[in-house]
Design brief:
- The chain has one domain: (Glycosyl)asparaginase (Glutamine Phosphoribosylpyrophosphate, subunit 1, domain 1), CATH 3.60.20.
- The protein has nine helices and eleven strands.
- The strands form two sheets. Strands 4-3-2-6-5-1-11 form a seven-stranded mixed β-sheet.
- The structure holds aspartic acid.
- Aspartic acid (ASP) binds next to β8.
């Protein structure tokens, strides 16, 4: 899509999700754009959109995050970045409602990424209250995953279900015998770009697992020429530094639509992946799976 330099927010609800959930992406993109139109920066817009997706409860982020294999722990990753130098991320954070807001708070510290217990303690110091509510939807998803892990079909393409039992590192006994993230990219009328993304991680996974979402250049990147957010199986995405690769193509003059399509095509078909991106005049989204997504453009 080509457009004059107008503010815009593009959102996704995770590769492998359902287009029935486009309404949540549309609401989030609208929420983000309202922030930008009301005088906020591209970063304010991307973060507001990402918070709306985290709060929706249907996507694998924030309130909808997948439960870890023990059926009770929730570990989340999130990141923010903009073309004016903002960079912050959290990995494996527990017991917060909006990891993307904690990631934004990390960007104001001397560091760019905080992980695990330190990230949670930082969140409390920064004033984010303890939050650990598990919905029926999350429980139902967990039971379904446990059933898959007990079967012959691999729950993760190319990975034997047994691996999760062999390397079990939770402090509860394992209960079986041998992906959707959210993201937003934004452009404001001044030509600044930002990205915000958040995930409950991929399932199944061992405790402490971190994918691409909080890793700069893999799950996200923003610079003077645009912003990119990626979704899919992190273990594969990091090997391609996918967000930075797509950003590099855009910065080199490749049309955004072509850049996101090529980015998706870098991964084998059996691996879920999706990419959204903006530059000065264009925006595009592509995935090799169904992927809820939306774009709202300021008129
Ligand atoms: N990229 C996320 C991860 O690997 C999962 C996803 O996008 O669905 O943690």
């Amino acid at each position: 899509m080509t457009q004059e330099m107008k503010a815009t927010v593009v959102t996704h609800g995770g590769a492998g999700g359902s287009r029935d959930q486009d309404d949540g992406c549309q609401f989030a993109a609208r929420t983000g754009l309202d922030r930008v139109a009301g005088g906020g920066s591209a970063l304010d817009g991307a973060v507001a959109a990402c918070v709306a997706l985290e709060d929706d409860g249907r996507y694998n982020a924030g309130s909808g995050s997948v439960l870890c294999l023990d059926g009770r722990t929730v570990e989340m990753d999130a990141a923010v970045m903009d073309s004016q130098g903002t960079l912050g991320a959290v990995a494996c954070i527990q017991r917060v409602k909006n990891p993307v807001l904690v990631a934004q708070a990390v960007s104001r510290t001397p560091h760019w990424l905080l992980a695990g217990e330190g990230a949670e303690r930082f969140a409390r110091t920064a004033g984010f209250p303890l939050y650990h509510e598990i919905s029926e939807r999350q429980r139902a998803k967990h039971l379904k995953l446990m059933a898959t892990l007990g079967g012959k079909e691999p729950a993760t393409p190319g990975v034997a279900n047994r691996a999760f039992a062999d390397y079990w590192n939770y402090d509860t006994p394992r209960e079986f015998t041998p992906c959707d993230t959210v993201g937003a990219v934004a452009r404001d009328a001044a030509g600044n770009f930002a990205v915000a993304c958040s995930t409950g991680g991929s399932a199944p996974s061992l405790l402490g697992r971190v994918g691409d979402t909080p890793i700069i250049g893999s799950g996200f990147y923003a610079g003077a020429e645009g912003a990119v957010a990626v979704t899919g199986i992190g273990e594969h995405i990091v090997r391609h530094l996918l967000a930075y690769t797509v950003y590099g193509w855009i910065a080199g003059g490749m049309p955004v639509e072509e850049a996101v399509r090529r980015g998706v095509a870098l991964l084998p078909k059996e691996i879920d992946v999706g990419v959204i991106a903006v530059n000065r005049t264009e925006a595009a989204m592509d995935s090799n799976r169904e992927m809820p997504c939306a774009q709202v453009l300021h008129d």
